[in-house]
């Protein structure tokens, strides 16, 4: 599949659509998933263009993983989670809905099931509050 510049995450990267940003550097961006499967569900994307794991440049993937590695413990601490699930889907048949490569950082708690993929939109206030918690924890943990 060819990369489509009109995908939602490309629009977020260009500032054409808003997001609840938690982190940005020259190579990557992290923001709240708008239909979270768990409170604090965070997405990490590269600024480089790639559809998914099947076409991403290895160096771009390494840059992306550096941010995933940095944010995973921050999201866990900020959300007071018991664990963190990292997920990534490739092609529609595997559950991919947005065709700009991204990793999901999903807080997990011992006693809570994940909500379904593609479920409900979260209130903007809740997303903003969770983004703020994660940004504050990132400031603290570095
Ligand atoms: P997938 O491609 O299956 O990994 O899923 C894409 C994810 O992007 C889903 O979890 C959606 O809830 C999420 N999503 C879709 N549109 C937006 C958006 N505008 N802002 C934040 N997250 C989004």
Task: For this entry, give a set of tags.
HIT family, subunit A, globular, binds adenosine monophosphate, about 30% helix, alpha+beta, about 140 residues, 5-stranded antiparallel beta sheet
Write the layout of secondary structure elements.
Layout: H1 8-13, E1 21-24, E2 28-32, E3 42-46, H2 58-78, E4 83-87, E5 103-108, H3 124-141
Antiparallel strand pairs: 1-2, 2-3, 3-5, 4-5
Helix pairs in contact: 2-3
Bound molecules: adenosine monophosphate (AMP).
Explain the overall architecture.
The chain is an alpha+beta fold. The chain has a single domain (8-141), classed as HIT family, subunit A (2-Layer Sandwich), CATH 3.30.428.10. It contains three helices and five strands; from the N terminus they run αβββαββα. A hairpin with a 3-residue loop joins strand 1 and strand 2 (28-32). The chain is globular, with a radius of gyration of 14 Å. The model has no long low-confidence stretch (mean pLDDT 97).
Question: What's this model, at a glance?
Answer:
The protein has 142 residues and is an alpha+beta fold. It contains three helices and five strands, in the order αβββαββα.
> Beta fraction of the residues?
15-25%
Identify the CATH homologous superfamily.
Answer: HIT-like
Give the distance, in angstroms, between the N- and C-terminal Cα atoms: 37 Å
**Protein structure class:** alpha+beta
Poorly predicted ranges (pLDDT <50, ≥5 residues)?
Answer: none
**Helix and strand succession?**
HEEEHEEH
Number of DSSP-assigned strands: 5
In this structure, how is the largest beta sheet organized?
5 strands, antiparallel
The spatial strand order of the largest sheet comes to 1-2-3-5-4
Radius of gyration: 14 Å
Shape: globular
- Which architecture name does CATH use? 2-Layer Sandwich
Number of separate helices: 3
Q: What is the CATH C level class, in words?
A: Alpha Beta
How much helicity do the residues have?
A: 25-40%
Give the number of domains: 1
CATH topology heading? HIT family, subunit A
Small molecules (ligands, ions, cofactors) in the structure: adenosine monophosphate
């Amino acid at each position: 599949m060819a990369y489509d510049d009109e995908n939602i995450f490309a629009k977020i990267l260009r500032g054409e659509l808003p997001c609840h940003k938690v982190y940005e550097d020259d190579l990557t961006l992290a923001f709240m998933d708008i239909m979270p499967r768990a409170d604090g569900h965070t997405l990490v994307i590269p600024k480089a263009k790639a559809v998914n794991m099947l076409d991403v440049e290895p160096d771009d993937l390494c840059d992306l993983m550096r941010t995933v590695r940095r944010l995973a413990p921050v999201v866990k601490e900020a959300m007071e989670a018991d664990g963190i699930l990292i997920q990534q889907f490739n092609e529609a048949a595997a559950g991919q809905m947005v065709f700009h490569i991204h990793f999901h950082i999903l807080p997990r708690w011992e006693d809570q099931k994940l909500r379904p993929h593609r479920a409900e939109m979260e209130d903007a206030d809740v997303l903003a509050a969770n983004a703020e918690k994660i940004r504050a924890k990132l400031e603290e943990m570095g």
